[in-house]
Amino acid sequence: MYMEYTYEQIRATANVLRDQVSGLTDLTKKRAIMNGPELRGLYAQIPLLEASERPQFGQEINQLKNELESTFARIETAQEQASVTPIDITAPYDINVPAEKRPTLLSSANGSRHPLLVERDTILDIFYRMGFTASESREIDDDYHMFEALNFPEGHPARDDYDTFMTEDGYIAPAHTSTMQNRLLKQYAPSLAKGQPIAVVVPDRVFRNEDVDARHEHTFTQLEGIYVDKGVHAGQLMATLKTFLTEYYQKDVEIKTQPFYFPFTEPSFEFALSCPFCDKSGCNVCSYTGWIELLGCGMIHPNVLREAGIDPSVYTGFAWGCGIDRLVMMKYDIEDVRHFQSGKLEFLGQFK
Amino acid sequence: MKISVNTIQKLNKDNGSVADPTIGSLPKLVERIGAQLGGVEEVTPIWAKYNGALIVTVVSCDDHPNADRLHVCMIDDGGVAHGVDRNENGLVQVVCGAPNVKAGVNVVWLPPNVTVPSSYDDDPFVLEARELRGVVSNGMLASPKELAIGDSHEGLLIVDGPVSPGTAFAAHYNLAGDEIIDIENKMFTHRPDCFGWLGVAREIAGIQGQAYKSPDWYRADMAVPSATSHDLPLEVQNEIPELVPRFMAVPMANITIGPSPVWLQTDLARVGVRPINNIVDLTNYYMLLTGQPLHAYDYDKVKALDGADHTTIVVRNPHYDEKLTLLNGKDVTPRKEAIVIATETQAIGLGGVMGGGNTEVDEGTTNIILECASFNMYSIRKTSMSSGVFTDAVTRFNKGQSPLQNAAVLSQIIKDIQAVCGGQVAGEAIDLNHLPVEVQQRGSLYLDVVVSRAFINSRLGLQLTTEDMSRLLTNVEFSVTTDGDNLTVRAPFWRTDIEIAEDVVEEVGRLYGFDKLPLELPQRIITPAPKNSLLETKKTIRHILSSAGAHELLTYSFVHGNLLDTVGHNRDHAYKLSNALSPDLQYYRLSITPSLLEKVNANIRAGYGEFALFEFGKAHIKGERSLDEPAVPGEKHRLAFVYAADTKNWATEQGAVYYQANEYLMRLVDTLGLSRGKLRLVPLHGSFDAANAAVDAWVAPYARQRSALVMYTLDGAPNGSDTLIGVIGEYKPSVVKALKLPQATAGFELDTLLLQLAARQNVAGRYTQLPKYPSLSQDISLKVSREVTYQQVYDCIWQALQAAELAGMLPRLTPLDIYQRQDDAEHKQITLRLTVASYEKTLVDAEVARLLDTAAAAAADQFDAERL
To answer: Are A163 and A38 found together in one domain?
Structure first.
């Protein structure tokens, strides 16, 4: 089942490599062979060939690589068969296992739920009660949804504020849950005509190309909110967020806004609440300022509504994006944001 | 953006504006800026640095008797300082080593008990009267560096202009009581005008409800001062008007380069800009004042580059592989779409970013070319990023400075250059203006915006009158005409952000104060908001697995390529980040399981001998498109689970750890309401041929001999075929070894969406009504070949029972034992217990025995099973 190769160089290399591989019983040399001088030598020859020859030659190198891969796959299977005895995977337990040694679930006392996701569910529950539905976001998206549909044209300086991860294929690891905004506006636009507002929150993971330390993570959780209807105004945005926070903290909080700039909202705000832990008297959590800067928000830009097929002269709306990690860190006094994704049971086990 | 309250107050006064930023208290001002303009990062009381510093006249300056380079000076402070020793004429003795000290000059004296300004922030140094080589020095005379207004430590700061001895330094230079307010730049992304003091001053007036008035020179239709000679001929060619909508340049002759006057130095230094020389300082000053960056080239150097009898500047894209050394010494090869300022032969600047070193203005410069241009903001941003050069000019140009202010700025700086550096305009001013004629005529970048009172009020929740709105806007120099309920708004020429009605809404709301908007919740209808079913399913699973003792964890969505290799994933199938933070986070995941496996060893080492982990995540396979949105990659929702136990916690007699994972899978299946009857485990080895990259990656980490595909019969599947919903098993020896897993490690990875679908389909049929009559139990033991699976035996018995007279009965068949005699490795014995009750009558043993006989016969028939 060896492949046939047209080119003498490839045939020669194939023979050398087949010799190297034959008789191997494990994969310890796999990487060295697959990245070795023989294959690299073949690649190095490509530029020396006539342009017309290159595709065929390249193809045959790939065939050789595939041949080696499948040889290694066979070696692995053989290795596995030698060391792993097969079992009856349909049985409830293994042969001859005494009744008291059969599989049992661990004690429920051991289990834990991730604090970020529990908090996300708690927050979601409040928004459900306030009449919002929910959607998840994406982990890989295109420039259109991440930027363009949100009124960030190509080259817009506001893009600099989002240190996005890009894939080699030009996709983006979304830096905000707003990457769902255009989709959700489109999805729910028909309900507007029926007199129902668009009210949806998007809790999910987002990514920023940012150096990690105790306060900064490249991966974190955001909750986006979108509300569109006739006659929606900025005062309603503030009231909605204040109401949520009052319910979340189970106490009255004060709010403060600062004008801000986001391309996809106008006007835009940075939104702060009075520190619920010290009631503005100053504490560690609020860095003794009495205020906690919590989120960015604003009235959805007419271009964003229009892009989703909603007439901005008839409907207006607001949107916000809030980090969940910080809420959880403040709630439990968690000292290092990196714990969340550490997979450490010392950390997770505390959240029964 | 740093602004000085004193500078703004003085500018307002000079401009004849009634606005005064100090009308309320400083905290109030800062609060209003925060609420209505943008976040305040810091407020610095810069005045405090200069407490006690006095301007004095050096009356005499004699050599120090015991030191070569020191002088003993007698200074006149007008008798202002207290508690210092004076001579009979009231003069104070100070020892000074500066080379430029001499009798007659006015300098700055820091008396005893005064803190040296440059040391104020970090390590305050308080002066005293002390002997220097035997001569008492009362405090010191200060250099620009000691006064924190420059780097120069070579000599004293010489105070220029008439001033009476004893005048406080702070008072003379408008530093008394001055506070520096640093406002976040981010807020001004769409407000290029606020990158200038005039812009911020205007906004501060607006939010304080005061009418602002720009300086006359800024608003008037300024003509550049005409040439007094034509000694410096200049031509400009703009080859890229689409990137350079306006380019102005003017040559000036007979400039004297030198240090700036102290007022200019202090105005720059207080906001953190280092004075360099008078020309550079003035261009910086006008940039800080108006937001419009300017650049000065040495005319003679420009001319010499071409060696021609004419001087030409060409605005163009770079030539192939063209290189340029910038003012800061950095060599760049501008990207091919960059804007380059050049002579006919050589580049002399990276337009809008930084000038070239070859035409730098230095002490020898006498003739200059002043450039005041407008550049495409996107182009500047890209060039800056690609060449890694970030300057104050870039910060301003990449926000899109208005091309309507160039003439005013250029005209005014020429006047100041003439006043400060001498010289005159020595050639025709050039203005290559590519703006549409109607924009030039209108004097505003966009068409007038017509907006109704109702439009504005409905978006803000306010009840303002047109007069209220008009006043808020005209305070910051908009032109507003009202017609009934409509406002026609024309933005002043420096505003680049007022294009549509919503822009006017923002402006009115901000100037009114967003913090004063009425808080009212939207009215809601009573229709219940639908919950997200996938999130709800995940929440349920979260509860099921955590109640079963498992820990939910989160790991990164990106992994190291080595991890992919280790578990047998193909890197080529994974999306790769082009700008990963580190190799640890380079690839999107092809499945979630490897990330969990990676967390096992560390937790074992941390002393956890037995645990279970699970995570919800998404797998991405290159080339697979989203079904409902083909433009973007598909995302596979997955639930991964791993159980691990070290040798202390997993005894050999417990058998294969596979069954432990299976126990969790069955708990999930039962609690989610899936039907075990529709679930089928298919061995991974033999029967399975990796169908595609996704399935290949899904099963890759699992040991073929001890793993299974999880198949499920979903309603509506074609031909009642089974759907692959997951994989369960132990891991390959190579994976176990590489990730240092304990031998007892097993788990599964399921498709969360399919799990949810299956759970939803099986709501009906979960419950069977209970018979009234008592149940009976009997066991059946069968000896079968070891090749026969448990499932085959179970199904055979079950089907035989169903085929027999089971109508009207409720049967339950459960495993009791699976046994293999040590002396017979070819067979195994499976014992099942049948528990059965009838809905109609009380069963007797014989009836149950008959059922089992039938079943045993079927098994004998099918597998040669021997009943024991």
So the answer is: no
Average pLDDT in the A3-7 region?
Answer: 80
Which of A9-13, B391-395, B796-800, B820-824 has the least mean pLDDT? A9-13
Chain A residues inside the 8 Å CB shell of B660: 103
Q: Do A155 and B532 count as a contact with CB atoms less than 8 A apart?
A: no
Per CB-CB distance under 8 Å, the chain B contacts of A205 are 557
A252 and A316, same domain (yes or no): yes
| Residue A22 contacts B, CB cutoff 8 Å | no
Which of A86, A157, A346 lies closest to B398 in CB terms?
A157
Interhelix angle B501-512/B466-475, rounded to 10 degrees, is 80
**Res. B556 pLDDT band, cuts 50 70 90:** very high
Q: What is the ipTM of this complex?
A: 0.88
Is there a contact between B578 and A142 if contact means CB atoms under 8 Å apart?
Answer: no
Is A345 an 8 Å CB contact of chain B? Answer: yes
Pairing of strands B827-838, B776-785: antiparallel
Which pLDDT band, with edges at 50, 70 and 90, does B71 fall under?
very high
pLDDT per residue over B650-698, tens digit each? 998 899 999 999 999 999 999 998 988 899 999 987 645 556 888 889 9
Q: What percent of chain B has pLDDT over 70?
A: 99
Ordered domains of chain B (ranges, CATH): 2-41+191-214 (no CATH), 48-172 (2.40.50.140), 235-435 (3.50.40.10), 449-516 (3.30.56.10), 533-761 (3.30.930.10), 776-867 (3.30.70.380)
Identify the pLDDT of residue B364.
93
DSSP letters along A243-298, please? Answer: HHHHHHHTS---EEEEEEEETTEEEEEEEEEE-TTTTTS--TTTTTSSEEEEEEEE
Predicted local distance difference test score (pLDDT) of residue A3: 65
Q: So what's the pLDDT on residue B221? A: 67
| pLDDT value for A14 | 87
Residue pointed to by tokens 């997770």: A348
A79 touches B at CB < 8 Å: yes
Residue of A nearest to B399 (CA): A157
* Number of residues that this document lists for chain B: 868
List B249's β-bridge partners, or say none: B371, B430
Contacts of A112 in chain B (CB under 8 A): 546, 551-552
A90 inside domain: no
Q: Please, are residues B453 and B469 in contact by the beta-carbon 8 Å criterion?
A: yes
Reported as a pLDDT band with limits 50, 70 and 90, residue A2 is low
Q: How many CB atoms lie within 10 A of CB B481?
A: 12
As given in the structure block, the two tokens for residue A221 are: 């959780």
**Residue of A111, A128, A261 with shortest CB distance to B546:** A111
Count the alpha carbons within 13 Å of A343 in the hemisphere toward its beta carbon.
20
A–B: how many Cβ contacts below 8 A?
A: 362
* Cross-chain residue pair A343–B527, CB shorter than 8 Å: no
CA within 13 Å, CB half, B604? 20
Residue in chain B closest to A200 (alpha carbons) equals B529
Which of B337, B390, B551 to mutate against chain A (most A CBs within 10 Å)? Answer: B551
Q: Identify whether A2 is part of a domain.
A: no
**A100 located within any domain:** no
SS3 content of chain A, % helix, strand, coil (to 5): 40, 20, 40
Judge: A267–B510 Cβ closer than 8 Å, yes or no: yes
pLDDT of res. B307? 86
Smallest Cβ–Cβ distance between B551 and the set A132, A233, A345 belongs to A345
Q: Does A349 touch chain B (CB under 8 A)?
A: yes
Mean pLDDT (chain A, rounded): 91
Are A138 and B635 in contact (CB < 8 Å)? yes
Q: Considering only CB atoms, which chain A residues are within 8 Å of B650?
A: none
